[in-house]
Amino acid sequence: MDATDRALEQRIDELLAARSRSSSICPSEVARSLEPDDWRPLMEPARRAARRMVARGEVEITQNGNVVDPSTAKGPIRIRRPR
């Protein structure tokens, strides 16, 4: 893991902490908060950060409100605290 990976994980934690326990965030919010003008290159790293956090039991990845396997999730995802 490099400094960007650590920053992405930290930002996921910060964004989730600022929301209600039942709220979720989009990886694009994480990327935009770190690089507002050039956030698109951070989209896949943000998704990878979320997958690492899932592996540690810190977050869940959802699609359409349902928890999904992060290794097979395709398309838009949301990140939330485990319920």
TrEMBL record:
It holds the Pfam family DUF3253. It comes from the Bacteria. Residues 63-83 are annotated as: Disordered. InterPro entries: DUF3253, WH-like_DNA-bd_sf, WH_DNA-bd_sf. Transmembrane segments: none annotated. Coiled coil: none annotated. This is DUF3253 domain-containing protein.
